């Protein structure tokens, strides 16, 4: 379990986050929503120990996060960003193997290589393993990175949880890919696994999230199940836009439409 | 496009064989030909075996005191510059970075010229040992300062813009070259002549002590660099991503810059400025197989030695019995390759890479 306690963060005099408290439980797919500039990505970076200059505390399983935890954290926490800067020729397998780097010193052992194969099967990119990463399509690249972060935390630690953070991972992906991706993310969120995703598409949040944290102007509006968070009133507060939730008898969840 | 089917080991073996062949060939070639028989016998004798065969003492001396140290130095400097290129390319996350472009070589050349003109005689009077070490030490210090300057000035918020890097590199190189030029202007004639030679690069001054010095520095740096190859791979993903994989990127960057400078500056203090080798060698290896830094470091050591040896052979043979400074050869071949890579990298259909 991961707790965010009264976290504040500012760059110069510009407040990015103010008094943010939230908790993320294992077994649930948690999502963070909010307009651009609401501090979603900053919160994720603070939770992943990438940004250190914040106030308040981040608590992993009762222990407060410190800067020196980088190496230890790398074994139990993986982060997938919107896109990667990788612009050198490497095979897909070599990129996925990077996920195992925190677990070996010099050479990967058979166990690491087995995990690499398993995650490539899971992401259905095994046939690409010898391909040059630079020649892949955008979707295939993102799948490769998803496989890499899954490889990083493929095994549940003996004590405590593993953590998967997704920072707008499907922003540029097609419809099929978005759903495939979120299905995998949700199935990964089993026991002892905390999954937190920053996402823009509110309908995907309604459909897939177990719990949603709504941020606006660096503050928490509410955290709860999607049907309590994604409502016309809160949407209006966050995005200044009128909206309606529609139901269709064939679909077991609501559909949000802007109503202008 | 598939990556090459050749395994890493197969590539190392091929490179090893080619290296041996170029070594034998380059011992043979030169202003005075050393026959293959002499090469074999000299090695045989040097390894402590006795042979009834008579060796021409002049030829043997030429081989042991001039050509062999020269070829060894050539190989080691070639390996060092190439590994440096690979390291800097990983650090800047761009395949067009090279020690000559980012100030390391010219800074080191300035540091060495400084000792040449003002320092050496002065320090040698204090202690002869210090006198030998002051040259590489000064080259190291100034090479490091120049490299750090270029790195700091061309990166903002953890991103290095290549355009800025090249411009900052030009400025820092100009300052260093200006300084070196000033030194050769105020220098007495023989000093000035050696500075000029040196900024073109030459292996003609090779002797055993310089081989030992450069070998030690390069060996230490390459072994240390191998330890960081995993972290350097992670860095290819970007600094944040590397951090998520447990890499302390700030520490890593400083260490890599120091290792790079150690190899380049010590080499430069002995043989002068030799450009573009560090650019081409890792690039060739990437085209053949992969950007995995472990492979690039080992492969660059071998291929760098081969290419530098070949370039030195060309510089000795082309105008024989006179010899061309090797820096001219590497620049003539390397600069066009650099332009080719730059052009390909920033083409309209290439996304990424330019702001790596």
Write structural notes for this entry.
The complex is a heterodimer of chains A (260) and B (356). In chain A, strand 7 (162-167), helix 6 (175-188) and strand 8 form a beta-alpha-beta unit. Chain A is built from nine helices and twelve strands. In chain A, the strands form three sheets. Chain A has a six-stranded mixed β-sheet, sandwiched between helices. Chain A has a four-stranded antiparallel β-sheet with strand order 2-1-4-5. Chain A has 260 residues and is of the alpha/beta class. Chain A folds into two domains: 1-76 and 161-225, P-loop containing nucleotide triphosphate hydrolases (Rossmann fold, 3-Layer(aba) Sandwich); 86-156, no CATH class. In chain B, strands 1-2 form a two-stranded antiparallel sheet. Chain B is globular and about 65 Å long. Chain B is built from 14 helices and two strands. In chain B, 75% of the residues lie in helices and 1% in strands. Chain B is an all-alpha fold and 356 residues long. The two termini of chain B are 22 Å apart. In chain B, 51% of the residues are buried. The interface between A and B is medium-sized, with 32 and 30 residues.
Structural class assignment of chain B: mainly alpha
Strand runs of chain A, count: 12
**Largest interface, chains and sizes:** A-B, 32 and 30 residues
Strand content of chain B: under 5%
Average pLDDT for all residues of chain A: 92
User: What structural class do you assign from the helix and strand content of chain A?
Assistant: alpha/beta
Can you tell me the number of structural domains of chain B?
1
Classify the helix fraction of chain A into a percent range. Answer: 25-40%
The radius of gyration computed from the alpha-carbon positions of chain A, rounded to a whole number of angstroms, is 19 Å
How big a fraction of the residues of chain A is strand? 25-35%
Q: Strand count, sense and closure of the main sheet of chain A? A: 6 strands, mixed
Query: What is the N-to-C succession of helices and strands of chain B?
Result: HHHHHEEHHHHHHHHH
CATH topology of the largest domain in chain A: Rossmann fold
State the end-to-end distance of chain B.
22 Å
- Pick out the low-confidence regions of chain B: 347-356
- In DSSP terms, counting alpha (H) and pi (I) runs of 4 or more, how many helices of chain A? 9
How would you sum up the major sheet of chain B?
2 strands, antiparallel
């Amino acid at each position: 379990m991961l707790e965010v306690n009264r976290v504040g963060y500012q760059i110069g005099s510009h407040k990015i986050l103010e008094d943010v408290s939230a908790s993320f439980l294992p077994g649930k797919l948690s999502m963070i929503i909010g307009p651009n500039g609401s501090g979603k990505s900053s919160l994720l970076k603070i939770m992943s120990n990438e940004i250190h200059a914040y106030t308040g505390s981040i608590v992993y399983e009762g222990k407060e996060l410190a800067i020196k935890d980088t190496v230890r954290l790398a074994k139990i926490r993986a982060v997938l960003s919107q896109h990667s800067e990788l612009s050198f020729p490497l095979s897909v397998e070599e990129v996925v193997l990077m996920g195992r780097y925190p677990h070996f010193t010099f050479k990967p052992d058979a166990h690491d290589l087995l995990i690499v194969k398993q995650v490539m099967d899971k992401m259905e990119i095994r046939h690409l393993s010898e391909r040059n990463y630079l020649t892949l399509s955008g979707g295939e690249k993102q799948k490769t990175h998803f496989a890499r972060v899954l490889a990083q935390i493929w095994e549940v630690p003996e004590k405590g949880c593993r953590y998967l953070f997704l920072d707008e991972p499907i922003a540029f992906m097609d419809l099929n890919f978005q759903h495939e991706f979120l299905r995998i993310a949700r199935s990964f969120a089993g026991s002892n696994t905390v999954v937190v995703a920053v996402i823009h598409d509110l309908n995907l949040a309604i459909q897939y999230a177990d719990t949603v944290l709504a941020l606006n102007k660096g503050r928490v509006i509410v955290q709860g199940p999607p049907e309590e968070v994604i409502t016309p009133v809160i949407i209006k507060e966050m995005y200044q836009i009128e909206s309606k939730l529609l139901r269709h008898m064939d679909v077991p969840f609501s559909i949000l439409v802007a109503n202008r | 496009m598939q990556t090459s089917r050749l395994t890493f080991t197969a590539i190392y073996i091929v490179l090893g064989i080619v290296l041996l062949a170029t070594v034998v060939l380059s011992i043979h070639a030169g202003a005075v030909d050393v026959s293959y028989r002499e090469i074999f016998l000299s090695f045989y004798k040097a390894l402590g075996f006795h042979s009834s065969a008579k060796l021409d003492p002049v030829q043997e001396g030429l081989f042991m005191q001039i050509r062999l140290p020269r070829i060894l130095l050539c190989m080691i400097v070639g390996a060092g510059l190439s590994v440096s290129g690979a390291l800097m390319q990983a650090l800047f996350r761009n395949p067009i970075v090279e020690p000559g472009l980012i100030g390391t070589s010219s800074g080191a050349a300035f540091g060495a010229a400084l000792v040449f003109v003002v320092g050496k005689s002065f320090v040698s009077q204090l202690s002869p040992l210090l006198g030998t070490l002051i040259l590489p030490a000064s080259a190291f210090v100034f090479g490091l300062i120049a490299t750090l300057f270029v790195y700091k000035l061309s990166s903002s918020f953890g991103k290095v813009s290549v355009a800025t890097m090249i411009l900052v590199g030009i400025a820092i190189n100009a300052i260093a070259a200006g300084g070196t030029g000033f030194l050769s202007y105020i220098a007495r004639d023989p000093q000035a002549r050696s500075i000029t030679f040196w900024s073109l690069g030459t292996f003609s001054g090779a002797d055993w002590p310089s081989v030992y010095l450069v070998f030690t520095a390069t060996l230490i740096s390459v072994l240390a660099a191998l330890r960081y190859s995993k972290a350097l791979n992670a860095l290819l993903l970007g600094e944040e991503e590397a951090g998520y994989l447990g890499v302390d990127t700030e520490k890593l960057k400083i260490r890599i810059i120091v290792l790079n400078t150690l190899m380049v500056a010590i080499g430069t203090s002995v043989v002068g400025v030799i450009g573009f080798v560090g650019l081409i060698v890792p690039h060739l290896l990437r085209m053949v197989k992969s950007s995995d830094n472990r492979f690039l470091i080992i492969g660059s050591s071998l291929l760098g030695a081969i290419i530098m040896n070949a370039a030195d052979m060309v510089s000795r043979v082309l105008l024989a019995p006179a010899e061309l400074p090797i820096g001219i050869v590497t620049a003539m071949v390397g600069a066009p390759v650099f332009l080719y890579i730059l052009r390909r990298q920033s083409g309209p259909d290439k996304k990424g890479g330019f702001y790596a």
